[in-house]
């Protein structure tokens, strides 16, 4: 992990948090790897209290795990936890999808299309953190388009799980073009208003994709 040049000109806490997020999502720092407060403090030229604050931020985001008397490490999800989380996410995705296809005005679907248009250039950028943020923003937009406030309360936890899943399997994922195609299929499916077809596409995108990644050997 390399200290970015911008650290001398920007808030060190924000810069350190950004660097650690990027390193976790890209797979540079692996799940289960310990993070050392003293080493990071020296590398980034900041106080140990600043490092602890960053640890707290990333722990609240679900990327790190704190263990009493054992320090902080990148959180690791078991295969069973990933699959269970994706099954729950699929069910919640369908709550959003139902609200979108039941909207006779088409405004909710239009929101999803707009979000996808913004997603396309970001996901094609060769930056793992930017790709993840674009991914999360697009899926959150689907939930927001549903106008279901109760559903949206579950988004912070869901986004943390997605981030961990991406980080844990970053070396086994497909290309940005493949990601773009899979998300395009979700938009196209919603446009059909065919619930069975939509259900199939979202299941493939979440649960089946997770199963395939877990079965695939790392490169």
TrEMBL record:
<dbReference type="InterPro" id="IPR036390">
    <property type="entry name" value="WH_DNA-bd_sf"/>
</dbReference>
<dbReference type="Pfam" id="PF00392">
    <property type="entry name" value="GntR"/>
</dbReference>
<keyword id="KW-0238">DNA-binding</keyword>
<dbReference type="GO" id="GO:0003700">
    <property type="term" value="F:DNA-binding transcription factor activity"/>
</dbReference>
<dbReference type="Pfam" id="PF07729">
    <property type="entry name" value="FCD"/>
</dbReference>
<dbReference type="InterPro" id="IPR008920">
    <property type="entry name" value="TF_FadR/GntR_C"/>
</dbReference>
<keyword id="KW-0804">Transcription</keyword>
<dbReference type="GO" id="GO:0003677">
    <property type="term" value="F:DNA binding"/>
</dbReference>
<dbReference type="InterPro" id="IPR011711">
    <property type="entry name" value="GntR_C"/>
</dbReference>
<feature type="domain" description="HTH gntR-type">
    <location>
        <begin position="10"/>
        <end position="77"/>
    </location>
</feature>
<protein>
    <recommendedName>
        <fullName>HTH gntR-type domain-containing protein</fullName>
    </recommendedName>
</protein>
<dbReference type="InterPro" id="IPR036388">
    <property type="entry name" value="WH-like_DNA-bd_sf"/>
</dbReference>
<dbReference type="InterPro" id="IPR000524">
    <property type="entry name" value="Tscrpt_reg_HTH_GntR"/>
</dbReference>
<keyword id="KW-0805">Transcription regulation</keyword>
């Amino acid at each position: 992990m390399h200290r970015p040049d911008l650290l001398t000109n920007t808030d060190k806490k924000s810069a350190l948090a950004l660097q650690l997020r990027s390193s976790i999502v890209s797979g540079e720092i692996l799940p289960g790897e310990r993070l050392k407060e003293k080493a990071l403090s020296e590398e980034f030229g900041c106080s140990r209290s600043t490092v602890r604050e960053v640890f707290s931020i990333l722990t609240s985001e679900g990327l790190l795990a704190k263990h009493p008397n054992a320090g902080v490490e990148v959180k690791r999800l078991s295969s069973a936890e990933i699959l269970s989380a994706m099954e729950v996410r699929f069910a919640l995705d369908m709550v959003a999808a139902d609200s979108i296809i039941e909207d006779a005005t088409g405004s909710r679907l239009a929101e999803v299309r707009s979000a996808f248009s913004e997603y396309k250039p970001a996901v094609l950028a060769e930056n793992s953190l930017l790709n993840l943020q674009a991914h999360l923003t697009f899926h959150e937009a689907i939930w927001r388009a549903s106008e279901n406030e109760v559903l949206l309360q579950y988004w912070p936890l869901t986004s943390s799980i997605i981030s961990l899943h991406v980080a844990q399997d970053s070396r086994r994922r497909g290309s940005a073009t493949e990601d773009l195609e899979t998300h395009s299929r979700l938009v196209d499916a919603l446009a059909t208003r065919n619930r069975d077809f939509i259900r199939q596409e979202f299941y493939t995108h979440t649960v089946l994709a997770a199963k395939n990644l877990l079965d695939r050997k790392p490169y």
